[in-house]
Specification:
With about 450 residues, this protein is of the alpha/beta class. About 30% of the residues lie in helices and about 25% in strands. It contains eleven helices and 21 strands. The strands form six sheets. It has an eight-stranded mixed beta sheet with strand order 3-4-6-5-7-12-10-11, with helices on both faces. It is globular.
Amino acid sequence: MKNFRLALLMSIVVLANSVVFAQTAEIKDPQITNMLNEVSATHLETLVRKMVSFHTRHTLSDTLSKTKGIGAARSWIKSEFEKYAAESGGKLQVSYDTFQQPADGRRIKEPVILKNVMAVLPGTDPNDKRMLMVSGHYDSRVTDVMNIKDFAPGANDDASGVAAVMEMCRVMSKYQFRTTLVFVAFVGEEQGLYGAANLAKRAKAEGWDVHLLMNNDIVGNSYGMETDIKDNKSVRVFSEGVAAAETKEQAAARQSAGTENDGNARQAARYIKEIAERYVDQLEVKLIYRRDRYLRGGDHTPFSQQGFTAVRVTEMNEDFNRQHQDVRTENGFKYGDLPEYVDYSYLQKVTRMNMSVMANLGQSAQEPQNVKVITTGLTNKTQLKWEAPKGKTPFGYYVLMRETTSPFWERKFFVKDPSANLAYSKDNYFFAVQSVDENGHESLMVVPKPGR
């Protein structure tokens, strides 16, 4: 099979140092397909129902009980990660990310010790420092955000996201990847994104190369509250266009090149759409050009603020009769975020979506370096040059092109050498370059900067 895929890429003709560009066929890695087939809707439901069984997972709830509260929940998540670690032959590294959260005068009344739960699968390439992260938050709440006692099932918000992360960890820890994979269950989202903020600051301080964070929050419902329509085929990916951590110099360069729609998070979202729709049947990834829902935020936001590439994955239509509601029955209608209202087949698709992206990117060569549009002289053609990435040398590169008004990359050309001369004007199109290995695993895209 490997030789077949190699032959497919080699079918792009190279003659006398000039490249004859051709549209390439999609290449699916059978190992990734096998991984996706291991994702179990039944197991996802078991995980969600177990999290609901802790009665409440409010960030400030009981930490001493073995059966109720945030303490019991995090202990169980850690024990499940440790079970996967044993099944992986010890490759998976499980830990708490423990920190003291100061009082904030709002939702944290006094200092409290909080714990994110992490499982890290180290990459096999010592020269590849990339880290790919997938997350959900394990805390829950009811209508009153300070109510730490009442039943707060949080089945969809966000046991669904944590279940996706855990199922990915269970399956993927049996395999090896070039990059390091990080599976994390955040605490404190409902109180103010505190778990994510702590880990993002730690990642920045310790120099982690967090190449992409996919945050899964509210990913298990396929029912539209107002529309009364079931949509189990669509999922939203939110991405910022202008980086939250953009400097004045970066802003000036962006304004000059007109790349306000081409930040790293926006490119990652396009990558997610392409790879997920390649591997997951009956799934359409909707790219939402906002950092998050209108005037709202999530655990990807602190990572964006620290300069990392981060996006939010969320179901197409939220059901607000379930979200942040006291569990009750009024006029014959049952309110509350209960496990019977999660669509586990839909959650299976979303989990597979995340896994396909993480696996494809986790096996890819690193991004091309110093990608430039050559600007010496006025011309209606476009000359691109770049340098090979660090680490393993890629089999080749894809040059991507789209109209300036298009939300997606429209054409994808394969080249062997780190340069390309295109009969298309840089005034009228956007371009990017990504590495590709012999099995068709692509890196993230790099938008060129002007150069000479």
